[in-house]
Amino acid sequence: MIRGVFMATIRDVAELAGVSVATVSGVINQSCKVSDKLTAKVLAAAKELNYHPNRLARALSVKRTHLIGCLVPTIVNPFFPQIVKSVEDIAFQNNIGVFVCNSEGRSEKVSYYIQMLLETQVDGVIIALSWELAKPEVINPFLEAGIPVVGLAGARRLATIDCVVTDDVHGGFEATSHLISLGHAKIAFIGAQNSESTRLRLMGYQKALTENDIAFDERYVVLGSAFSEVESYTLTKVLLERYPEITAIFAYNDIMALGILSAANDNGYLVPQDISVIGFDDTVAFSLPKLSTIAIPKEEMGRIAANILMDRIQGKAEPPHIFEIPPKLVIRNSTSRVRADSFRITG
After folding, report:
1. Which of 64, 117, 120, 236 is most buried (most C-beta within 10 Å)?
2. What would the pLDDT profile of 263-301 be if each residue is shown by its tens digit?
3. Order of strands, edge to edge, in the sheet holding 221-224?
4. One fold for 10-62 and 67-166+297-325
């Protein structure tokens, strides 16, 4: 005969410790002041009985689930996993679990996760400010349920929630100014259509050209349908075949920069001798050559967003704020002056 597994209850712990159920509840939930002596007795009894509090019952008693949601558009791009890790670190320090919800840009997944998080009655939600998530129909259901929301990354600044973002215009300006400082004037930009971040980084690109008296040439701006290495590879091959005078390319992000490096190599260009390439977001650890980029402090962004959410969960009431973290130019080996004696591999 198979014996059932004994599952200790809060009453068992109270009986073994010689205290009331209310005292055990106060110790477990940290909801009231209990002396060190009684706390030690309760914890010892709980350990002896291998007692694990029922999360649902605990949530009902303290009106908190100690769970938050983190809704992101992708986990393929390493940008978001790095942010999520920082969010999880802060949540763990506060004894809070994290539901990571990867929408993959699919509306049916977004709807599913909204419903799931609402039904779970999470204490708060962090939402990436991407085009498919930074929408009233995604954010408002949580706010209407009294669940605090913090937005991060992306280019959108929303008035209804705290937002932790970076300055895309300044980042685009810094990337282009770096290329100009190396003597480049024929500078291309490769991004994606229907992207607010692309629009802002392109503004910074144009601002740098204007401030250096370099004419903007719309032929050198190419916008694809996706932020992918494959897409940027195809766009770069076409761009270089049509406009071989280009000496530098500014990529929307590091993933797209990898495609640019591959296309340049396949077209017989040496990087950086024949053509310089700079990315954005600093997510690529290994490339040949090592990629110059505009670094977004992803860990800091996740940490700040998570701490703001902890404050909101604790009841901090004040108008929403925009927290803008400046990006930083990181110079590596993919950018330089075009050497007078450079050559292009052919055949």
Report:
1. 236
2. 999 999 999 999 999 999 999 988 999 999 999 999 999
3. 221-224, 187-192, 248-251, 276-278
4. no
Which listed CATH number (1.10.1740.10, 3.40.630.30, 1.10.260.40, 3.30.70.20) goes with 10-62? 1.10.260.40
What would the DSSP string read from start to end of 41-74?
Answer: HHHHHHHHTT----HHHHHHHHT--SEEEEEES-
Judged against a pLDDT cut of 90, whether residue 345 lies above it is answered with no
pTM (2 d.p.): 0.80
Fold of 67-166+297-325: Rossmann fold (3.40.50)
DSSP SS3 for 222 = strand
How many other CB atoms sit within 10 Å of the CB of residue 331? 13
DSSP of 132-197: TTSSHHHHHHHHHTT--EEEESSS---SSSEEEEE-HHHHHHHHHHHHHHTT--SEEEEEETT-HH
pLDDT level of residue 192 (50, 70, 90 thresholds): very high
Residue 148 has pLDDT above 90, yes or no: yes
